[in-house]
Amino acid sequence: MRVYRRGVPRRRRWLGERGVIMATLTATMAALAVLVIVPLLILWRLSLTPQQRARRMRAAGQSFRAIGASLGTSHTTARRWCLA
What we know:
With 84 residues, the chain is mainly α. 68% of the residues lie in helices and 0% in strands. It has helices at 17-46, 50-59, 64-71, 75-83. Helix 2 packs across helix 4. It starts with 16 loop residues before the first helix and ends with a helix. The mean pLDDT is 84.
């Protein structure tokens, strides 16, 4: 470690100025990815039809009555959607 005039050691950077630029670039790209991916995931979840939701709920192990109650239909309709 080099000691300068006032006796204060100077910290060494492994990548120098390039490391600061790369860290800023990486953080910017991560923020942009979040800003693009999160709205797409929200839109994807909202675009599911009731039939698709019923199939997912059935795959998760819920009963036809529970599926019908959460989707606002009868259990027979939920069963029909899941088996179709």
